[in-house]
Amino acid sequence: MDIHGVFDAISNHGNGVELTLPETWLQGRTTFGGLVAVVGLAAMRGQVQRDLPLRNLLVAFVGPTGTGGIRAQARILRQGKSVTHVQAEVLTNQGEICATLHGCFGAERPSRVLKKGHTAPPWPSPEELTELPFMEGLSPSFTQYLRYCWAEGPYPFEGKPEGEYGGWICCLGEPKETDESHIVALMDAWPSPSLSMLNTFAPASTLTWSLDLFHTGEGFTTADWWRFKTHVDAAENGYVSEESRLWTPGGQLAGISRQGVTVFG
């Protein structure tokens, strides 16, 4: 089930949403974290009008989703003149909490403060680079629905000290217009840059995620190539702080994310 299919499979459930987890989007006892966030965001969108852009999303991954299904419910914490705060919880079919989310949805407002985000990296086009193959049993299963072209930095488990890399990404399947859900998914679809600092395999798991959005995703399709760059800020005692950026196919900054990650190696 490609990214369109899995997004379309999110259905209304009572006053929230639910999703039966496709097997190919699972990672052991849990599912792809970006998908968990998208399900929580779908529940939030049930409380907020569509034309109010998502400005910030805070996610805490509390526990595994299991392999059956998840459901999410949301409620408005405060609705101001410009900004609406919404809280969501994602639960397993057994009622165990697996993630909490806090979303800030905000209308545009006049401001004299303007600073454009980092310029998109001037990499060679994806056609000039080698596309990474999907390797059954080695690659996370959901990556079979995405295309990756590495542009700079070491690959995972090369044992390099840099702790940073970047590349291009797009979705396989029928082209459809992108939106904020695609931005969320694409920003979490890459391995932690800390893994490139290891020379043997080790798992990593995101604890917390803060995502600032500067673009709605509209005006592009899932077949277009987006640029992604990430680096480790600090790492100690098995905990990693990392920062990432995503640029639209047109070169605009789409989002900045910070993740707190545990590395088991």
UniProtKB/TrEMBL annotation:
Pfam families (UniProt xref): 4HBT_3 (PF13622), 4HBT_3C (PF20789)
Domain Acyl-CoA thioesterase-like C-terminal: 126-263
Domain of life: Bacteria
InterPro entries (alphabetical): ACOT8-like_C, Acyl-CoA_hotdog, HotDog_dom_sf, TesB_ACOT8-like_N
Domain Acyl-CoA thioesterase-like N-terminal HotDog: 21-105
Name of the protein in its database record: Acyl-CoA thioesterase
Organism: Desulfoluna limicola
